[in-house]
Design a protein that fits this description.
Order of helices and strands: HHHEHEHEHEHHEHHEHEHEH
Strand order of the largest sheet: 7-6-5-4-3-2-1-8
Largest sheet: 8 strands, parallel
Shape: globular
Number of helices: 13
Helix content: 40-55%
Number of strands: 8
Low-confidence stretches: none
Radius of gyration: 19 Å
Length: 315
């Protein structure tokens, strides 16, 4: 049993108990959820608050490269950008982490040594998760041995959607055990879960199994992070802490590309989970192009004009 949620020991005692618990969660009012997310997205942010929000968003980015064409040189360049996002302005905050494949973790660790920027590594046969458990655990061990501070795992969506919740739960437990001191982010791939009820169930399942973060998506499918699915996950971590005293982070990933989008998500965090989550220890953006737009908007606030096309690097 995970030590994070002893109050729910009975709920995870068997496959049938876990199913009863997850299907006993309140159903999601889809219309109400989407209306609230849309309403919060219209909040007006004043100039001073906007400047604070932009810097906060930069500090929450997991600057990511997860491509088959990744090279050590590309990872080192991304690490340099994470440490010093704007070479013309040393007051720009560093990003939270650089996220790479396990075979690039050692390169990222070396490039970021002493910077305070974390190294996150995807694992467990990312992004599909279609591999035997021993292969997935070996993937995690490789990343941890390379020095990764954080592991981003994918759940077995096939098992989840067919109702084999205990299999998913036990797999998360096994991965968590291999993480050691590394923090574990559990990716649901919300675009494949089909319903808000499933996203709520997956959120609770991940938290019960000891996730340090729950994460929307891999960024590799058509539907990734949305205000609505992120709002639902923020409600879940809020309610989980209220019942257990344990705080869990949230990471929307994929499709968040503009400063306007990022600020909307920060409003969701503040108004739903609360100020305690407005810190990169508890909230992250999985993104690559988002940083460029945040830097452009930051310079606009500072100088009153937009910079030229060569102001930011192309990832």
């Amino acid at each position: 049993m995970p030590t994070t949620a002893p109050a729910f020991a009975d709920a995870t005692a068997s496959d049938s108990a876990l199913r009863r618990f997850l299907h006993g969660l309140p159903g999601v009012d889809a219309v109400g959820l989407e209306a609230r997310a849309a309403s919060l997205g219209t909040r007006s942010i004043k100039t001073t608050a906007k400047a604070y929000a932009i810097d906060l968003a930069i500090s929450m980015i997991d600057l990511t490269t997860l491509e088959g064409a990744d090279t050590p040189g590309k990872v080192r360049a991304l690490a340099a950008k994470a440490v010093n996002p704007d070479p013309t302005d040393r007051t720009a905050p560093r990003t939270a982490a650089v996220c790479v494949y396990p075979d690039m973790a050692a390169t990222a660790v070396a490039a970021l040594a002493g910077s305070g920027v974390k190294v996150a590594s995807v694992a467990t046969a990312f992004p599909a998760g279609r591999a035997a458990l021993d292969v997935k655990l070996a993937d995690v061990r490789d990343a941890v041995a390379a020095g990764a501070d954080e592991i981003d795992m994918v759940i077995d969506r096939g098992a989840f959607l067919s109702g084999r919740y205990l299999k998913v739960y036990e797999e998360i437990l096994a991965v968590k055990a291999e993480c050691g001191t590394a923090r574990l982010k559990v990716i649901f791939e919300t675009g494949e879960l089909s319903t808000y009820d499933n996203i709520r169930r997956a959120s609770w399942l991940g938290m019960l199994a000891g996730a340090d973060f729950i994460k929307t998506s891999t960024g590799k499918v058509g539907v990734n992070a949305t205000p609505s699915n992120t709002l639902l996950m923020l409600e879940a971590v809020r309610d989980f802490r209220a019942q257990t005293g344990v705080q869990i982070g949230v990471k929307p990933a994929g499709g968040i590309r503009t400063s306007k989008d990022a600020v909307k998500f920060l409003v969701l965090v503040n108004e739903t989970a609360g100020e305690d989550w407005l810190d990169n220890h508890w909230f992250r953006f999985g993104a690559s192009s988002l940083l460029n737009d945040l830097l452009m908007q930051r310079q606009k606030l500072s100088t009153g004009r937009y910079s030229g096309p060569d102001y930011v690097t192309v990832d």
